[in-house]
Amino acid sequence: MRALIVGGGPVDSSQLKNELAAEPELLIAADAGGKRLADLGRFPHILVGDFDSISGDILEAARKAGTVIYPYPAAKDQTDMELAVDLALERGANRLRILGGLGGRLDHTLANLGLLAKAAQKGVTAVLLDSRHEVSLSDGHLELRSVPGRAVSLIPLTPEVKGVRTDGLKFPLLDEDLYFHHTRGIHNEFTGEAARITFKQGLLLAVIFREDNPVD
Predict the structure, then answer these.
(1) Is the distance from CB of 183 to CB of 212 less than 8 angstroms?
(2) For a Cys staple, 7 with which of 100, 105, 138, 187, CB 3.0–4.6 Å?
């Protein structure tokens, strides 16, 4: 089951419309993500959070539209986004696409990268999206689709990722190790319609990004 989660971080409305047009089977909003959807005249299947960033009017409209609402206190041990991811996993989603989880506050962005690992532990593919990036994570195997005008970086989320091999990238890795404290995997290019990455140990982030980003 495909699930789309809309969070409270920056969301491009055109991208959100495109994601909705793909008709996800489960639509979850985390707090202010409910407002992002309401602005487009849509309500989620599930709305979760402490609701410090959404109006009572939107909550009531969502309730009347049939949205299942899970309210939480502001003083809690999980972010609204983690609550949304947990609900998606509990509902049986095996593919997650997450908007509004990148950009904004750095601490939330870093925590959301950890949520990719949480999904991976359940055997679920999760992707964090914004208008410039598509971020996924794996503990052994990644299949990446090439998008015109975009490149890819491979970033260890563990101190070391061992035995990385790539196929379909301009600068290949042939059973090489990548390290969190080195930049070896930054900025590679697709050579065809897709790329395949395998490795033996660790957690690896794949960041597909628009090539017009500033480069240091």
Answers:
(1) no
(2) 100
Q: Is the pLDDT of residue 212 over 90?
A: no
Residues 6+ apart with CB under 8 A from 142: 136, 195, 196, 197, 198, 204, 206
Q: Are strands 194-198 and 160-167 parallel, antiparallel or unpaired?
A: antiparallel
User: Within 10 Å of residue 22's Cβ, how many Cβ atoms?
Assistant: 9
Interval 2-26: pLDDT, tens: 999 999 999 999 999 999 999 999 9
Compute the distance between CA of residue 155 and CA of residue 198 in angstroms, rounded to an integer: 13
Q: How far is CA 22 from the centre of its chain?
A: 16
Measured CA distances, 88 to 48, 102, 179 (Å): 11, 19, 32
Q: What is the pLDDT of residues 112-126, one digit of tens each?
A: 999 999 999 999 999
User: Six-digit token pair at 150?
Assistant: 């975009």
DSSP state of 111: H
Residue 4 is inside which H or E element, if any? Answer: strand 2-6
Buried b or exposed e, range 110-134, using 16+ CB within 10 angstroms: eebbebbbebbeeebbbbbbbeebb
Domains of the chain in sequence order: 2-131 (3.40.50.10240), 138-210 (2.60.120.320)
